[in-house]
Amino acid sequence: MKVYCIGIGGIGLSAVAKILSHQGHEVSGSDSSKASLEKNLSGSGIHTFSSQVAENITTDLELIIYSEAVSEDNPERVRATELGIKQMNYAHALAMVSEGRRLIAITGTHGKTTVTGMLSSVLIDANLDPTIVIGSTMDKLNNQNFRLGSSEWFLAEACEYRENFLPLNPEIVLINNLEPDHIDYFKTDENYYAAYQKLIEKIPAHGWLILFKEDSNYLDLSKVKGKVMQLAKEECRKEIYTLKVPGNHNQQNAYAVSKVAEKCGVPMKLIQHGLKDFKGTWRRFEYKGEVNGAKIYDDYGHHPTEIVATIQAAREWYPDKHLTVVFQPHQYSRTHAFFEEFSHSFDEASDVWITDIYSARDTQDDLDATSSEKLVSSINNIESRYIPFDQLPVEIRKHADPYHVYLVMGAGSIGTIFDQLFD
Question: What is the pLDDT of residues 159-168, one digit of tens each?
């Protein structure tokens, strides 16, 4: 096919685009973010446009794939509609490229990328030769966000936002944890859990649902046609894995990964080897370098639960350092919905710097409901400051010394400060 991807620089769609290209399809696309194109498509051989205009859509195109961030009034989508070219979103495209394979879907509120990365390492070391789509990059994938394998196995990070995992037809589903999120879309906790209920009811009779007992309370497991394995967190604490990534939450991640790998026929010796070999993924407690002797880490965490777990992991490695968390809240709606939780999520840090909220899909009511300054004023257990986004590199340089560790967190544009910090 001749395929055009709108929003091709995104971490998910770029992986699907590269898989299609490696399969022999002629792939091109556009993205409004030049940085995303450079990060995720550089060296791929896929022709890209950094502007999204109707003229990019030609009559010989057979399929348009668009990311969730691309609206119906996008000029390229409008032109594709006028020409009658078939269109599908990223979620359906992922289902398309995984069709006919034994699909393992890694989902849950937190830790999807890390768990997918851990399982990738295990399956590759066990020579299962899987195809992989992951929401990050990792060294074992040659610093890519995909792998094209030749076996029957297909491993995918499956996102719940807008029920994007529902087009998939998984044989194995791992729900790593459940906690309401994406309030802008789901509106209620019940709607959030209902999306997962729909997913687990798609598991075939020969398939598996793997989840922790605590999360099974939100689902009706009697409607699952496949087999169900409920994991116990107390058992996880008995099985300590040798890992290169810190934190009790990663021991729990490793435990869940081991149970999925067992269902794929991987012996425990190879599971342990693959887990030990896992070095982490991009923007998940990723070491960036030093400034004036202070170590700098980058992390994607943007939900209170993720923040707590990452700070605890940082404390394991640096119990005696002054740990400063530099946090960019992601969405006004999320900040408002979890305001109380955010106000306590930094307690184990030495101090926290809150910068401007990254707005995405927010309404005017969301914008009026909260602010970075309000969040700062609600944090009482440790010192907190509001620092404008453009001043973050300056402030880090000013205060950095060998006794400090900086943990930079957020899912928005916070990663762009490193270009200035390390220039």
Answer: 999 999 999 9
